[in-house]
Amino acid sequence: MHRVLLSVLLSAVLIAAGSSSVWALQSGGVEIGDLETGSVVGQHFKHMNVDLEFNIMELGGKKVIYPPTAILNLISSGTGGRAQAPVLIKVTNNLSGDHGFQLGSDTKRDDPWAMDIKLVLKPGETKYIGIPMSDLTYVTTNGVLDYSCQLHGAHLGGTLVILK
User: What is residue 46's DSSP assignment?
Assistant: First the structure.
């Protein structure tokens, strides 16, 4: 009887230990806000360097998110060692109307490895997106995220390539 109880208890501990790593993937969470009041994993946006900057504008008669291809270098030799600091992205709408910004993996999934950030910016508005390094690492197994306007399908988006 004691062996059965001990094996059940040991199995429960092993299951709990195995599932805790899944919860760790969701622990950080993406935060969206302005420079003065925003923070992610305890770090205020105003104390962080902006890693990427996107501008929503009109080029050649088309509404685009510029740049069309962005590269985020997370290799420690390329960034001087991030020490797992969160990534901060600045998005500015330079158009005269509302515009969306959606950043996510190319496969839409409902699991801890999926990322789907959506925000709407008013004309002239700037917002910041803070992403914990752990969340960014796990959702980009192929090293690519796509960005687009979720409000207007004809507007041109782009691709974020992550070097890790």
Answer: G
DSSP 113: T
Number of domains in the chain: 1
CA 45 to CA 131: how far, in whole Å? Answer: 11
Neighbours of 45 (CB within 10 A): 22
Can you give the C-alpha Rg of the chain in angstroms? Answer: 20
Tell me the two tokens of residue 161: 């390539």
Which residue range forms the structural domain that includes residue 139?
29-163
pTM, to two decimals: 0.77
Query: Does some domain include residue 5?
Result: no
- Residue-wise pLDDT tens digits, 57-109: 999 999 999 999 999 888 766 545 566 788 999 999 999 999 999 998 755 55
Q: What is the CATH number of the domain that holds 55?
A: 2.60.40.420
Distance from C-alpha of 104 to C-alpha of 114, rounded to nearest angstrom: 8
Cross-strand bridge partners of residue 117? 103
Q: What is the pLDDT of residue 113?
A: 62
